[in-house]
Amino acid sequence: MLVAFDKVSITPDQQTVEKGVAMAGFYRKHKAREVLDPVYARAVLVVDDYLDDIQKPLLLISLDLLKAPLLVFNYIKERIQKEVDIGFGAGQILVACTHTHHAPDLTGEYYWPGGLFKTIKGILFGANRNDRYIIWIAMQIAKMVKRMVENLQPAKMAWGKLDITDEMTEKDGFRPFVLNRRHPSDREPQELGVISFASTSNDDLIGLIMNYGCHPIAMSFNNEKISADFPGRACMHVEHETGNKVGVVYFTGPSGDLNPITTLEVDDFSELEGQEATLANNKEEGESTIYVQYGTEEHADMIGAYIGSKALELARGFSSDHYYTSLEIRSYMKTFPIPVKDEQHEKEIGIYNRVNWLSNKLVVFIKKWLILPIAMAAAQEPNFPGLTIKKVPLSHGEGMKYNAYTVNHYIDVIARSGGRKARLGIIGVPGELFMDIKHRFLEKSPAGSSNTFIFQIANDWLGYLFPVKEYVTKAGYEPFASTTPTAGPYVERKMYRLWKEIEAGIIPHS
C-alpha cells in the first residue's frame, strides 16, 4: 500500500477576520475578530495495491468546522475528482467535521450573532452568505490532495483501541473529563481509536488517525476567537512531539450526548440527573451546569495534549505483528430519504409522557409548517442549502410531505500480511450519534467491535442521531436542534440494510 498525510489551513485571511467572521456553534453576542489557533483540513490518502496494476485510492478528510451540509461535502469531493488525476470513485472520499464550536459558519445559520432568535433568522434567511469561503476551502483542499498524490510512499498499517477510562483520575492533575449530558450517572467507557501507518523501509511512523468521541466544547461560548478546540490541540501535540515528522488526522467519534467536564464540579454524577438544558448560554458568569460551563484555552490544551499523547503512545506501541502491508478497500455509500415528521411510538416502547409528547409535537409542527416553508421560499435556489430537503407527494394519496435526503458510508478494508488477514470497518454517519446507537453499530458491525471505527458528521449533518426511546422519555434540547426526530432510527436501519446488501453481494462498491 501507499500512503500520504497532509494538511492545509482553512482559516480566513487576516483582513476578513478583522472585519468579523461569524462562528458556528453556541449563541454568541459577537463575531470573531481574532484567531486563537488556525483551523485546518487534514487528510490521509491510502492507495490499495491489492490488484497490483489497478490501484484504488481512499481519501479521508477531516475539517476543523462545526458542520457542513450534504451539498457542501459533495462540492468538495467533486472539486477533488475534477482536479486530481487519480480516479476517485463516488465512495472513495469521506469528508467529516470535527465539530469545533469555534470555527467559521458555512450555512449562514450563525450569520447574525445575538442569540436564539438571530440563529432562527439565519436558518430562514442566511443562505448564500458564505459561498466564497466554501469555494475557497474546496480549492485549498484540492491543492492539498494534489500534493498528497505526489508524496505517496510505501507503508504498512496497524490499528487498535485504548480504554482510557481508568486513567482519567485525579492523579497527575487529571480527573474524569467526559460525561453523558442526558444521563450523567451512565459512566460511558472512554475509548481512543488509532489507525497507524509506518514506513516499510525503516519502520518509522508516517502518520496516524485519531478517533475519539467527545463534544469539542472544552472552550465555552465566551471564547470569541477562531479555534479548532481540543481536536486541534491533540493534533498539535502529536506534531510537536514528533518534530512535525508524523502526519495526523482527528475524526470525532460518536458524541451526540457526551460533553467534556471543564468547570463543572462534581463528585457524585447521579446528583446531576434531571438537569435540563438551557438555551441561555450567552451569560458572562454563573454556576456551571452540564450544558453551560466556562472552559478556557487551558482546558482545551489539557484535554488535547492528553488525547494526543495517548494516541502517540498507542501508535508507537504497535509491534510488527500488528502491521499489515497489503490492503483491499471496498467503499459503499447509500443515499436515502428521511421524512420530517414526528414518530414517538409510545406503545411500542411502553412509555408515555404527556409533557414530552406535546412538546415534541409542537417542535416538529413549527419546523415542518413554519420554518421549513419560509426558509425554502426565502432561499429560492441556494448554491449550498443547509439541508437537502424536498417536498414530495405522499405515497398513499393526496397531499405533500418533506423528506430530508442524506447518506450512509461504510468502508470495508481487508488487510493482509504474509499469511495473516484481518478486517477493518469505518462507519461514516451524517450527524451526532448517541451512545445507544453507537453500541449497537459496534455490536453488529461486519468487522467486529474492536475493528470498527465510527466517524460522525461524515458527508452530511442532520443534527443529533438519537433512538426513539430517548426522544420519548426525555425530549429536550437535542430533538429541538435536529432536522427531524426520525433521523437516528432511519440512519440506523439503513446502515443495517447496507450491511446485509454487502454480505449478500448485491450492492456495488468503489
SSE layout and pairings?
Elements: E1 2-9, H1 14-19, E2 23-24, E3 40-51, E4 54-63, H2 70-83, E5 93-97, E6 103-104, H3 116-125, H4 131-150, E7 153-163, E8 178-180, E9 191-199, E10 205-212, H5 229-241, E11 247-252, E12 258-260, H6 297-317, E13 326-339, H7 346-349, H8 354-379, E14 389-393, E15 400-417, E16 420-428, E17 432-433, H9 435-444, E18 452-455, E19 464-465, H10 468-474, H11 477-480, H12 487-504
Helix pairs in contact: 2-4, 3-8, 5-6
Summing up helix and strand content along with how strands pair, one would put the structural category as alpha+beta
Tally of DSSP β-strands: 19
User: What's the Cα radius of gyration?
Assistant: 22 Å
Mean pLDDT: 89
What number of structural domains do the residues give?
Answer: 1
What would the principal axes of the Cα set say about the shape?
globular
Poorly predicted runs are 279-284
What is the beta-strand fraction? 25-35%
End-to-end Cα distance, whole Å, is: 17 Å
What is the topology, as strand order, of the major beta sheet?
5-4-3-1-7-9-10-11
Number of helices: 12
Helix content: 25-40%
The main sheet comes to:
8 strands, mixed
Notes on the protein architecture:
- The structure is a single chain.
- The protein has 510 residues and is of the alpha+beta class.
- It has one domain.
- The protein has 12 helices and 19 strands.
- The strands form 5 sheets. Strands 5-4-3-1-7-9-10-11 form an 8-stranded mixed beta sheet. Strands 13, 14, 15, 16 and 18 form a 5-stranded mixed beta sheet that branches. Strands 2-6 form a two-stranded antiparallel sheet.
- It is globular and about 60 Å long.
